[in-house]
Amino acid sequence: MSEINKVVLAYSGGLDTSVIAKWLQQTYDCEVVTFTADIGQGGEVEPARAKAEAMGIKEIYIEDLREEFVRDYVNPMFRANALYEGEYLLGTSIARPLIAKRLVEIAADTGADAISHGATGKGNDQVRFELGAYALSPGIKVIAPWREWDLTSREKLLAYCEENNIAVEKKRGTKSPYSMDANLLHISYEGDILEDPASEPEEDMWLWTVSPEAAPEQPSYIELDYERGDIVAVDGNKMSPATVLEHLNKVAGENGIGRADIVENRYVGMKARGCYETPGGTVMLKAHRAMESLTLDRELGHLKDELMPRYATLIYNGYWFSPERYALQALIDQSQLYVNGKVRLKLYKGNVTVVGRESADSLFDEEIATFEDDAGAYDQADAAGFIKLNALRLRIAAQKGRK
Q1: Locate the Arginosuccinate synthase C-terminal domain: which residues (predicted)?
Q2: 158, 278, 306, 373: which could join 186 in a potential S-S bond, CB 3.0 to 4.6 Å?
Q3: Per-residue pLDDT tens over the stretch 146-175
């Protein structure tokens, strides 16, 4: 790599990126610019500023991107009902393209030669950050310390911190902490005892949700208002996208909703075990499918369901800024024109139950669907011809002796 004078680092203030900031200064003898995206991780933001200042960093970017994150990334993803491998709500995956976008923008603004991130050489995030960066800035240089240095374990990182007077929170004696990533959609946990898929997570690991056993004995009811597939109000109160998700995280977390313990297939080829808390997102997925069940044409809904795994995989693998994702998003967004109305939900001890839905754009016709007298709205005799026509190919095959 050519000479590097200035690098923009995606900086959380946690163990890995704190080490990286110092390592970049020492290894490349360069100026480091830190960028911390406030996408809902809360208390991590201001400590990141103090840590960067303590390392002599002059240009420190800390930006509140919560509304942009939910409006332009989370909400479009939930319009697709995206789930990776049937379980993962993509909380980490969907945050990476926004961070990559701001990294290259700040690099351009500050005249930096390169960007850097703290993703390991075994993980998905290195792919997500770099695919996003190259899609938006084809000539950008990327420094990925985990692919260069010899600090190959948490213990070595902690020792480096000791040698260089870098403060590290959440140290538990000599034991390495969980690798955690938080944003407004979720918090993830990896490492430590979770590296054994047979080990049950410790109860005190979970930060956002109570256990279902400890949740209130009385259910909570909420009503969500939808416009074009996005939640715009909760219990009749208009809210911004980020405020909606904050509120749903709170009420769902209090009711023990949103925990997941998953072994997933990483893009780089290995299986990995991770635990996730996505309380608000769990409610959003359930409610959005309920709203679509009332308002979406059958074949359009089925087409979305067929495309969803591909769409989810694109996000998981880091292709948010790809032409295929843009094309799928256009179809998905077009499908949401009539996804308007209200969904009522019951939250109780880890469960989300749909208890009502209504819409001025509903395709549900009670006169046709009723088991009572429909006054001629549906001629049941028509079903005989419908069945015979659809059975025609089966009957011909049977006559030819085919199974």
Answers
A1: 178-396
A2: 278
A3: 999 999 887 898 899 999 988 776 544 444
Give the span between the Cα atoms of 158 and 381, in whole angstroms: 76
Catalytic residues: 16, 96, 125, 179
In the chain, what are the domains?
6-66+91-177 (3.40.50.620), 187-358 (3.90.1260.10), 368-399 (no CATH)
Element containing residue 158 per DSSP (H, E): helix 154-164
Backbone angles phi, psi at 227, to 5 degrees: -135, 120
User: Using one digit for the tens of pLDDT, what is the confidence trace for 241-288?
Assistant: 999 999 999 999 999 999 999 999 999 999 999 999 999 999 999 999
Which residue ranges are tagged as binding site for L-citrulline? Answer: 88, 93, 124, 128, 179, 188, 264, 276
Name the nearest CA neighbour of 27 among 162, 118, 149, 166. Answer: 149
pTM equals 0.92
Distance CA 135, CA 325 (A): 13
- Burial (CB count <10 Å: 0-12, 13-18, 19+), residue 110: middle
pLDDT of residue 372: 74
Binding-site residues for ATP, in ranges, read 10-18, 37, 118
Q: d(Cα 42, Cα 24) in Å, to the nearest integer?
A: 26
